[in-house]
Design goal:
The complex is a heterotrimer of chains A (619), B (46) and C (203). The model of chain A has no long low-confidence stretch (mean pLDDT 93). Chain A is an alpha/beta fold. Chain A is 28% helix and 21% strand. Classes of the chains: A alpha/beta (619), B mainly beta (46), C alpha/beta (203).
Amino acid sequence: MADVGRHPNIELLAYSEVENVAGYVGNFTVTVRKKARYVDVKECTACGDCIDVCPVTAPDEFEEGLATRKAIYQPFPQAVPSAFVLNIDECLGNNPIACGKCLEVCDKDCIDYDDKDEHVDIDVGTVIVTTGMEVYDPTELDEFGYTRYENVITSMEFERLINSGGPTEGHLIRLTDHKQPKTVAFIQCVGSRSENKGNPYCSNICCMNTVKDCLLIKDHYPEIDIKVFYIDIRAFGKGFEDLFQRSKEKGAIYIRGIPGEIEEDPETRNLKLYVENTTAGGTDCHEVDMVVLSVGVHARADSDAIQKLLTLQRSQDGFFLEAHPKLKPVDAATQGVFFAGCAESPKDIKDSVTQAGAAAARANRLMMQGKVSVEAITSTIIPDLCKACGICVKVCPYNAISCDTKAKTPAVVVEAACSGCGACSAECPFGAITMKHFTDRQIEAQIDAMLEYNSQDKVLAFACNWCSYSGGDLAGTNRFQYPPNTRLIRTMCSGRVDKKFVLRAFARGAPIVLLSGCHFADCHYINAVHWTQRRVEKLWDELEKKGIRPERLQLEWISAAEGQKFATVMRAVEDLRQKVTPEEIEHTKKALAGVLEPPKPKAAAKKATEEEAAAQAAA
Amino acid sequence: MAEEAKFKCLRCMSEFCLPYTPGVTEERTCPNCMSNSVRRLKEKKE
Amino acid sequence: MAKLDAEGEQLRVGVFVCQCGHNIAGTVDCEAVAKFSETLDDVVAVFNNKYTCSEPGQLEVKNAIDEHNLNRVVIASCSPRMHEPTFRATLAGADLNPYLLEMANLREHCSWVHMGEPEMATDKAKDLVKMAVARARSLEAQDEMIVPITQKALIIGGGIAGIQSALDLADAGYKVCLVEKEPSIGGIMAAIDKTYPTMDCSI
C-alpha cells in the first residue's frame, strides 16, 4: 500500500469518483470528482492533534462499528494517503461558538471547512476496473438472529476482534459480557449457495477464511472449542487442504449441516443451534457462547454506474462479464478496458493479485504498441441525400454527428467518435447514412437469401453482436437445444435494424421476425437500444394498421450471459411460427408488396420522404 | 406515485398493468412469461 | 452469370466449410453443405476442411485465395466472435482486405444446439451459408483507422487488485492514475487480520 503512495508514476486520487468517461480505446477522457476532504491531503501529517480535541464521536466503519472514531479521523493507522478526513455531516462546523477546535490546534493549518468538490479531466489509454465487492449483510436471514442476538457476529466483525490492531487489541471476547468465549461456532455459506435469500453462487473465499479463523483461535486460545457447520468444505487451492487438515488436527470440529434455527438463552446469552447432521443423521442441539456467520460476497451496489460509464456487461450474478471466459478472462468487451479482483467474481487475495498482474499485462500489451487500429465499422453520410433534418444528431449516443439544420448543410460524422451502432442509419428518413460493413444492401441480401425458399418454415431473428448473438453462442457452448427454424442476422447493435428490414422480411414471406438486443443496462452503445424499442413500438402500430398481427414481430432483450433465455426465446418464437397460416403469409406479402418496389421517381419520392420526415419530426 | 398503464404481452397475450411515464422508453417484461414483447394498449379505459 | 462488385471487379467467392472435427460434422452433413455451396451464384471454389482454423486449414484458405483469385471469402465454421480475428488475419496474409470475409456460424448456432435433428440442422447450415454468400457478395474493402494510445492507465478502485495493477504498470514505466472512492486505499483486504494460505498480515 505504501508503495503506491510514493511511486513516482502513480497519481493517487483517494476519496474520488469517476463521473464520466468519453472517448474510446487508447483515447479515453475521464472526469474524476475529487470529493471535498476538508483536510489538505499533502500538508496533513496525521499527527492526531485534531482528534484529541474533536468533541464528536461516531461509529468507526473500519472497525465494523465495534469502536468509535471522531468526526475528523484517519480511516485506519496505515492508511494511504496518510492524511485525515473530516466528515462534514458529523462536524459541528466552523461556527466559533459551536466548535472549530481542530482548526485551532492544527499547526500546519490544513483544515478548510469550505473545501469543495473538484473535477479533474484525465486522459488515459487503458482502464482497469478493480472496484471489488461488498460483503453480504445477513440481517435478512431471520433464523440466525444476526442483530437480534448480540453474540452472533459476522466473519468481518470477527476479523476486527481477533486483530491486534482492532478494538479489543486482539482479545477474542463476546460482545455481551466481554468475556472470552468457551465455544465458538462458525456457520458457512451464509448468503451463498442459496436459492431463496442471498446469492445462488459459491462465494469462493468463505471456507478457507473460516479454516484460517479456526487456526487463529487455536493458536491464541487452544482451550476454545470450535464447531464449524458446513454444506461442503471447498479447500481446492494450493496448500488449502493442508490448512484444512491442520485446523482439524488442532481440534476444530466440522459438522455437516447448516443450523435451521438459533435460539438465545436469555440468561447466559448463550446460543442454541438446532441442526440436522447430514452425515450422521438426526437433529442435534449445540449450545455455544458465540456464533460467527461466515458471510459471502456480492457485486457492489454501485456497479451500475461504472457499467454505464464504460459500457460494460455483467453476468447474471451481478459481477462484470469478461469478453471470453477462457481466452479473455480479464478483458472487457469494450476495447481497452480490463478487470481484476472481485469486480469480476469473488476471489481471494492470491487470485486477485494474479488477475491484477494479468490485467496489467494486457493493458501493457496494448499501450506498448503505441497505436491501435479501430474496427472500420462507422457511419458515413451521403451528402447528396442528406436533407439536414438533424434527426441523426438526436439519435447518436456519442454526439459524433453534427448538423447545421438552419444552414441546411449536410450532417458530418466525426469518425473517431463514432462507435458504429448504426442507430443513425436506421433512423435517417432519407437513407442518407450508410454503415460501413453493415450496409442496407448487405443486410437485405441476407434477408432475401434466407427467405427465397420455404420462408413459411423459418423465423428471422436480428441479433446484436454484443449481447443476443453472444447469448446464442453461450447457448451453443452449453448445448442448450432449441428448434432449428431460426436464422440469425447479426448487426453490431439492434439499433441498426431499420424498419424497412423488418417490413422487407414480412414482404418476403417471413412468418415471424424477432428483434433481439441488449438489456437497457447492458447496451454497448450507451442507449442506442432505446431506439430499437421505439422503432418496434411504431412497427407494431404500423403492422396492425395493415391488418398484420403485431405479435408476428417479437422483441427480446437477451444478455451475453443468458444462454438459457436465448434457447427459451427460440422455442417461443417457433411456437408462434406454427400458428401463422399460409393464407396469412400471402396476405402480408400482398399488403407489403410496396416495400419491395424500387425507389419511386424522384419528385414523388421527395414528397413522400419529406412528409415522412415531417411526421417523424412531429413525433 | 408513478402512473400505470395497461400493457399486453405479444408472446403469451396476457394483459397487465405496469408503471408508465409518457415519453420515457423503458425495458418491460411480461410478468407472466418473461417476454419483452410488451406493448402498451392505447385505448384508454377510465 | 458472374456479377461485378462495386469496384467493377468480377465476383469470385470461395466457401470453406469447417467440420471442426466432430463438433460440426457430428450433426451437420458438411459434405452436403459443401455441395450445396457450389450451386450458389459467384461461388468459384468450395473446400471442406477438418479444422479451418488450424495451421494447414488457414494455409488452404491462403492458397485458395491465390490459386482461384478469390475476392470474397466465406468461412462456415464457429462463431465470428471466436475466430473472425483469426481469419481476418489469414485474408490479410493473402493480400486480401480483411473486411471481405464473412462467417457462417455452423457450430454455436447450429450443430451444438440441434444435435437431435441432423437433417434440419443441415438445412439450416445451408441457409446460413447461402445468407453469408449473399452478404459476402456486397462486402466492401475497408481501411481501419489507426489511432495513437495515450501512455497512461486509469485504475478504478484501490483494493488489492487495483494496488497490484497500479504497481505493475507503474513499474513497467507507464503513468497510472489510481482512483479510490474511500479516503484510503486498501479496500476490504485492509480490514482482514491474517490471510490464508500464508497466515500473515494483510497490510
